[in-house]
Amino acid sequence: MSTLRGRGSVQGLPEWGRCAVMGVVNVTPDSFSDGGRWFDTTAAVKHGVDLVAQGADLVDVGGESTRPGATRVDEDEELKRVVPVVRGLAAEGVTVSVDTMRATVAEQALAAGAVLVNDVSGGLADPRMVPAVAAAGAPFVVMHWRGFLTDIHAKPVYEDVVSEVVGELHARVRAAVEGGIAPERIVVDPGLGFSKEAEHDLALLAGLDRLRELGHPVLVAASRKRFLGRVLAGPEGTPPPARERDAATAAVSALAAHQGAWAVRVHEVRATADAVRVAQAVTDAAGGHR
Q1: Which of 14, 19, 170, 265 is the most buried (most CB within 10 A)?
Q2: DSSP result, 108-141
Q3: What is the dihedral of CA 160, 146, 226, 39, to 10 degrees?
C-alpha cells in the first residue's frame, strides 16, 4: 500500500502525522469560488483563524486570482492585499503559506511571518522567485505549469498526461535545487485544472504514486475545481456551482490522503479535515493487521 511508504515531510514545517489540510484564504475580488468574500484584511484574518478552528493545519493566503481569464493585478496591489493578512494570521499563531508568483510578494510575506511559498508557476513566472526563496531558506511548492492560460503553449495537449507532468515537474524541481533551494524543502503539485481537461485531472489523481516517485511530498489542490463540476454534472451536462462541490472535494481529499499525499488544499475545511482523519485511521488499521 502506497501510504505505508510515508507521505514525506517538509523541512521547516511541522509534522502532522497524516495528510495535512491547507485552508484557502483568497484576498481577491474575483477568485472562481469565493472571490470578494474575504476582500478585507480583518475579514480575511478572521476567516483564516476560523479555518484553523475547523481543522486546517496551515492557511494559504493569496492576493491574485489564477482562474481562467483572470487579469493579473499589479505588484503593489498584491502586496497591499496579502502582507497585512499574513502578518495578522501569523500574530494569531497560524502556520501561513503565501500563494504568489512574485518574488517581492514572497519576500515580504515571509518577512511578515509566512513559512511556505506556494508558487503556481513553479518559479517560471518570475526569474527572481527561486533565488529569493533560496535566500530565505523557505519551503517551496513547485506546481506543474505550462504558462498563463492566454499563452498558446499552455494548451492542455498530452499524449500521456501523468508521464509528461512528472517529467516537467522533475525539470522544475531540478531548476529549484540548482537555484539553491534544499531538496528537503520542496513540495510538488500536479497543477490540477491548469492547462488540463477533466480527464487529465482524473488521470493525475489516479496516478499520484507516479508523482510521489519524484521523491518529494505531494500537495493536491482539487478544491471545487472544474473537473469536479464535470463529474457531478446533471443530465443536461450543467455542472453545479463551485460552492456545491465541497462533498466531492472531501472525497478527493480522502482518496489523496489514502494514496500518500502530504497535504490537500481546500476552501471548505471541516469535511476535508474529517475525511483525511478517517483515511489515516483506515491506513493505521490496515498496518495493524499485516
Answers
A1: 19
A2: HHHHTT--EEEETTTT-S-TTHHHHHHHHT--EE
A3: 160
Strand segments, DSSP code E, in 63-181 are 96-99, 116-119, 140-143
pTM: 0.92
| Three cell numbers, residue 162 | 501523468
> Residue 15: how many CB atoms within 10 A of its CB?
8
* C-alpha cell read off for 259: 494514496
* Number of helices followed by number of strands (H, E) in the chain: 10, 8
Distances 137 to 89, 143, 282 between C-alpha atoms, Å:
21, 19, 36
Where in the sequence numbering do the catalytic residues fall?
225, 265
pLDDT tens for 63-121 read: 997 766 667 789 999 999 999 999 999 999 999 999 999 999 999 999 999 999 999 99
CA angle 138, 141, 142 (to 5 degrees): 125
Segment 168-193, tens digit of pLDDT: 999 999 999 999 999 999 999 999 99
